[in-house]
Automatic annotation (TrEMBL):
GO cellular component terms listed in the entry, alphabetical order: external side of plasma membrane
Localization (cell): Membrane
Record field: transmembrane: 306-327
Every Type I cytokine receptor cytokine-binding domain range: 104-202
Any one Gene Ontology molecular-function term assigned to this protein's record: cytokine receptor activity
Gene name per UniProt: Il5ra
The protein's name: IL5RA protein
Organism ancestry: Eukaryota, Metazoa, Chordata, Craniata, Vertebrata
Lineage top rank: taxon: Eukaryota
Length: 328
């Protein structure tokens, strides 16, 4: 049996950083008692191979350097598998002068107490971009695309920062992709666009732990706190517990997976304590939260500067009175 390659293979940009691959079965292909599937291989920008029984497929990828793929027919019968030749297509990179696209793109999200998600991105102008270049940022999440309206300008009065105070990013989703697209304009050059994909959890700036409580119980330090504002459950978080002994100068950072803690300490010392959080297990790690405000616990009477000064003054006065009494 001869296996014929698919026909009418096309690549279409269907959204920002999204490509629709579509083909049709070869009309000459014999199908009696055979199962037809298709082997798809993405060649660039990120290699990937998979098979499907459908005649279309959608892939998300950064397209500023183009996209290429190939597809072939798989004919299956019992344990027998036969393959056709490959059919290849490509999307050319969008036009633009070299080194005019942005560099050093960095983005961060934050979940508010009202469960909305903000987005903040920064970048540097391309080294080859003319001084009059203006950049414009768009983000896409699932089917929603939005252009930035809140820019901050850098050197040469060019946009180098963007903020979305509210987005359509769903805080309850896990490891979904956020597409960032930045294009530009200039009177003196065609500015090459740039795209980058971000995992929504990987760029989340985690909120700080809440309601931290620290107290002493005999020779033990006890600490409890609540997880950060997040739709994720308690088990999804890890913590770093910073403990500073003000008497000895000793510092410790302890890694914890629960939101309570007990530690034997030196009760004659005073301690400074801070906690920060990140998520793991349930999703990709994000950016560590800020440290909580410093909490002090314990006594350090031996090193209380005011007490020490008063003690020295009292001893000095007593010695002076004794000396005067002896002389007189």
């Amino acid at each position: 049996v001869q296996v014929f390659p698919p026909v009418n293979f096309t690549l279409t940009v269907s959204a920002l950083a999204q490509v629709l691959l579509h083909w049709k079965p070869n009309p000459n292909q014999e199908q009696n008692n055979y199962t037809i599937r298709y082997d798809v291989k993405i060649l660039s920008p990120v290699p990937e191979e998979y098979d499907t029984k459908k005649t279309s497929s959608t892939r998300t990828a950064a397209l500023h350097n183009g996209f290429s793929a190939r597809v072939r027919t798989l004919l299956l019968h019992n344990d027998l598998q036969m393959r056709s030749d490959w059919v290849k297509e490509r999307l050319l990179p969008p036009p633009g002068a070299p080194e005019t696209s942005v560099t050093n793109l960095s983005c961060e999200t934050h979940i508010s107490i009202s469960s909305t998600v903000s987005l903040h991105c920064t970048w540097l102008p391309g080294q080859g971009a003319p001084e009059d270049t203006e950049y414009f940022l768009f983000y896409r999440y699932e089917a929603y695309t939005e252009e930035c309206q809140d820019y901050t300008k850098g050197k040469w009065n060019r946009n180098t920062e963007c903020r979305f105070s509210v987005t359509h990013i769903d805080p309850e989703e896990v490891d979904k992709l956020i597409v960032i697209h930045i294009n530009g304009s200039s009177k003196y050059a065609v500015i090459k666009p740039f795209q980058q994909l971000f995992n929504q959890n990987a760029i989340e700036k985690v909120n700080v732990p809440r309601n931290v409580s620290v107290f002493l119980e005999q020779n033990d330090l006890l600490a409890t706190w609540e997880k950060p504002i997040s739709p994720l459950s308690n088990r999804c978080f890890e913590y770093e517990f910073y403990l500073f002994n003000l008497k000895s100068g000793n510092k410790q950072i302890l890694k914890l997976s629960s939101n309570d803690f007990r530690l034997r300490i030196d009760v004659t010392s005073r301690y400074a304590i801070q906690i920060r959080a990140n998520h793991h297990i349930c999703c990709t790690r994000g950016f560590w939260s800020d440290w909580t405000e410093i909490i002090y616990v314990g006594q350090n009477n031996l090193e209380n500067p005011m007490s020490w000064i008063l003690t020295v003054l009292c001893v000095s006065m007593c010695c002076m009175f004794l000396l005067v009494a002896i002389i007189c």
